[in-house]
């Protein structure tokens, strides 16, 4: 994934783009960071988002967008390096630590992050939040999963089916 | 397994909102994929789940063992089927308003399934989450018991292939197939 400003090569200063959240807050970030989003990358390569224009993101509110950009800015240098031959183990450990803290958040924030990562197609972030959700449900019984994710209680039919199933195949879950 | 409550084996009182026996069979749902042996015992499963509430007839329609499916009443085909449903006293009787609104509420709550997590409504996103469950033998069976939609997703061959390639554990797939064979037949 080539960073767009390296393709332009017009000046030394990193090119900035402006993103506008659904509640009209403007965020100015480096194009390299915003380009982690596959959706934005195309717009940015086309020269959008510069100057006073800004790229409107009607699906993402400002709280979520700032969180997303925090991730993008942190991960942009590593992504720009591509294969990252000069990324040391320390850098990677640092990124990992950042990631772990990054998803240590409230569930509602996590869900809006998931949707934002999905809409903006930020691969690393999608994978990160998906891992977090998987961690939330791993090792739990079906009922615990339902509670964790805020499902309504099962209907009597569902409960009966589950009970019948567990009676017969409970050994598979040990 | 604390949730294995005292209801085991007990007959479950019929839910007034969920009982709508329909004289339906698989052939009435051309969009429905062929039922696998796997799905028979689970009474309720439809191909395009989000607009569909599916309910079990096990405790309701006397002597009937085939599953009953109720489509979203907004759909024309559902209207048609509801018109011919046995519960209706006469084919020309207007839908009872109270019951109908209860019905749509019920359909709604079942089809969306969860309040605070719209992210989990998307099958693609859900698959991403479930893919990342640890490749332990108990992971997918547990997920498959969470709800019907999860069960459908987890038992899709495509998902199982992805799960295997994600974890690079070919032996696990063997277990899942075996598991399905035992479970679903």
UniProtKB/TrEMBL annotation, chain A:
Cleaved signal peptide residues: none
GO process terms (BP) = jasmonic acid mediated signaling pathway; protein ubiquitination; ubiquitin-dependent protein catabolic process
InterPro entries, per the entry: SKP1, SKP1-like, SKP1-like_dim_sf, SKP1/BTB/POZ_sf, Skp1_comp_dimer, Skp1_comp_POZ
Q: Which UniProt keywords apply?
A: Ubl conjugation pathway
Q: Where is the SKP1 component POZ domain?
A: 16-75
Q: Superkingdom of this entry's organism?
A: Eukaryota
Domain SKP1 component dimerisation span(s) in chain numbering: 124-163
Q: In which pathway does it act?
A: Protein modification; protein ubiquitination
Task: Family membership, please give it.
Answer: Belongs to the SKP1 family.
User: Which PANTHER family does UniProt cross-reference here?
Assistant: SKP1 (PTHR11165)
| Job of this protein | Involved in ubiquitination and subsequent proteasomal degradation of target proteins. Together with CUL1, RBX1 and a F-box protein, it forms a SCF E3 ubiquitin ligase complex. The functional specificity of this complex depends on the type of F-box protein. In the SCF complex, it serves as an adapter that links the F-box protein to CUL1.
UniProt subunit comment: Part of a SCF (SKP1-cullin-F-box) protein ligase complex.
Put simply, this protein is called SKP1-like protein
The record lists the organism as Eleusine coracana subsp. coracana
Q: Cite the source lineage.
A: Eukaryota, Viridiplantae, Streptophyta, Embryophyta, Tracheophyta
UniProtKB/TrEMBL annotation, chain B:
The protein's gene is named: ga10041
Which domain of life, per UniProt? Eukaryota
F-box domain location: 123-161
Q: Which InterPro entries match?
A: F-box-like_dom_sf, F-box_dom
What is the protein name for this chain?
F-box domain-containing protein
Stretches the record annotates as Disordered: 80-101
């Amino acid at each position: 994934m080539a960073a767009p400003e390296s393709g332009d090569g017009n000046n030394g200063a990193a090119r900035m783009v402006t993103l506008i959240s659904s509640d009209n807050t403007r965020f100015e970030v480096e194009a390299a960071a915003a380009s982690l989003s596959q959706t934005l990358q195309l717009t940015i390569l086309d020269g959008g988002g510069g100057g006073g224009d800004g790229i409107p993101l009607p699906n993402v509110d400002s709280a979520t967008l700032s969180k997303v950009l925090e991730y993008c800015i942190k991960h942009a240098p590593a992504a720009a390096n591509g294969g990252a031959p000069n990324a040391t183990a320390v850098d990677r450990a640092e990124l990992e630590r950042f990631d772990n803290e990054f998803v240590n958040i409230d569930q509602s924030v996590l869900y809006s992050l998931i949707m934002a990562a999905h809409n903006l197609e930020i691969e690393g972030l999608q994978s990160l939040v998906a891992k977090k959700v998987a961690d939330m449900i791993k090792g739990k019984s079906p009922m615990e999963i339902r509670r964790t994710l805020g499902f309504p209680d099962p209907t009597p039919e569902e409960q009966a089916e589950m009970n019948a199933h567990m009676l017969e195949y409970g050994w598979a879950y040990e | 397994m604390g949730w294995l409550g005292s209801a085991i084996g007990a007959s479950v009182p019929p839910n007034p909102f969920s009982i709508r026996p329909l004289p339906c069979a698989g052939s009435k749902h051309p969009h429905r994929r062929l039922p696998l042996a796997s799905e028979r015992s689970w009474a309720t499963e439809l191909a395009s789940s989000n607009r569909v509430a599916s309910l079990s007839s096990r405790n309701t329609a006397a002597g009937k063992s085939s599953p009953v499916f109720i489509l979203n009443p907004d759909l024309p085909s559902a209207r048609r089927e509801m018109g011919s449903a046995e519960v209706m006293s006469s084919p020309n009787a207007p839908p009872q308003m109270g019951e109908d609104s209860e019905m749509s509420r019920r359909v709604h709550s079942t089809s969306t399934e969860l309040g605070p997590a719209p992210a989990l409504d998307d099958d693609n996103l859900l698959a991403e989450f479930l893919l990342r469950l640890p490749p332990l033998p108990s992971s997918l069976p547990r997920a498959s018991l969470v709800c019907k939609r999860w069960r459908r997703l987890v038992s899709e061959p495509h998902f199982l292939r992805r799960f295997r390639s994600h974890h690079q554990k070919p032996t696990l797939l063997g277990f899942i197939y075996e598991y399905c064979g035992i479970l679903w037949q």
